[in-house]
Automatic annotation (TrEMBL):
The lineage of its organism: Eukaryota, Viridiplantae, Streptophyta, Embryophyta, Tracheophyta. InterPro entries: C2_dom (IPR000008), C2_domain_sf (IPR035892), C2_SRC2/BAP (IPR044750). Gene3D superfamilies: C2 domain. It comes from Prunus avium (Cherry). Residues 1-106 form the C2 domain. This is BON1-associated protein 2-like.
């Protein structure tokens, strides 16, 4: 059965140059990460001292549906009027899935935050790693022999478990 989601480890590292109503924020910033079209989200603790340059360095684990095309990182600030959104960044999944890097590769990424009017409002720094499922323990000798692989004798120190089966797929290359 195919997987319906993949697990991501997202570390929200820090943000830079955060402003609220064109003034640098003083404190109480947090970040929320959510998958596209999914009710699931994770939020960092509030940074009470960083001001316009908060640091969280907090790892959030999130299930990302296979059909999701983006993640959203939203930075908020708690004010006397309630929690206000400072800026939002929409992160394409293609930035950290696929390509020429292994699945468990750690990506360090920075994105421009945009406020509700679409204007630039700071930068958020994150790292993303797709968790790779752990491989199950190697098959036992009895399961290999039941699949039709001859085990031979174990007098050569190999324990009777084959480590590979060579296969030739075509004619020898021509030599000129």
């Amino acid at each position: 059965m195919a997987a319906t989601s993949r697990t991501l480890e997202i570390t929200v590292i820090s943000a830079e140059n955060l402003q609220l109503d064109r003034k640098p924020i003083k404190k109480n910033a947090s970040a929320t990460v959510r998958a596209e079209n999914d009710g699931q989200f994770r939020t960092t603790d509030m940074d009470t001292e960083g001001g316009a340059y908060p640091k969280w360095n907090e790892k959030l684990v999130l299930d990302l549906p296979m059909q999701a095309r983006s993640l959203t990182v939203e930075v908020q600030c708690k004010t006397s009027y309630g929690v206000r959104t400072i800026g939002t960044a929409k992160i394409p999944v293609s930035d950290f899935v696929g390509g020429f890097v292994p699945e468990g590769y750690l990506h360090f990424l920075s994105y421009r935050l945009r406020n509700h009017r679409g204007e630039r409002n700071g930068i958020v720094n994150i790292s993303v790693r797709m968790k790779v499922p752990e491989l199950k323990a190697c098959a036992t000798t009895s399961s290999l022999s039941s699949m039709g692989f001859p085990m031979g004798d174990s007098s050569f120190g190999c324990g009777g478990v084959p480590t590979g089966i060579p296969v030739w797929c075509g004619p020898y290359p021509k030599s000129y």
